[in-house]
Amino acid sequence: MIRALSTLALAAVAVLAVALAPAQAATKSKAEIDAGVTTTLDRFYKEFAGGRDLMSRASGALVFPTITKGGFIVGGEYGEGALLIDGAPVAYYSSASASIGFQAGLQSRSQIIFFMTDKALADFRAAEGWEAGVDASITVIEEGASGKLSTETAKQPVIGVVFAGRGLMGGISLDGTKVTKIDPQ
């Protein structure tokens, strides 16, 4: 039984590595990322009461239009997005993480990380490979948790909003997610 599970886990790792490698190697263009960011923000403003207010109060926002997660025992996720300051893209980033444990499925979602203070934004921009849960604690709001952003939530220095999920895979956590600067053309 243990041998069968080990073989299955190794096969899952191989499939996942092949599936995610092209996504990481083929960075989208700035225009593609910017178009996805615009669409994602439009959807966010429609789905979350107070979304525009939150954006206007944030020092910066890291917008990932699509983060794809997949796995069977071993999993991984990847997406690309832009850091917005005063509504304009100033830099581009990838988001990636890996996990092991009871999991199976494939899912995609949109994600926005709001830096509510100048210090939180400066710490993010100064980091070489920022990691959620290590370099900053993130308050996560999921779609369906009322679709509202409370005044109390907005007082947190870093807020993650996860929405527009498609597919089937349980559990949303940003802890352990590694965010790295990229240079799309």
From TrEMBL:
Signal peptide start and end residues: 1-25
Pfam families: Ysc84
Domain Ysc84 actin-binding: 97-180
InterPro entries: Ysc84_actin-binding (IPR007461)
CDD domains, per database record: SYLF
Alphabetic keyword roster: Signal
Protein name: YSC84-related protein
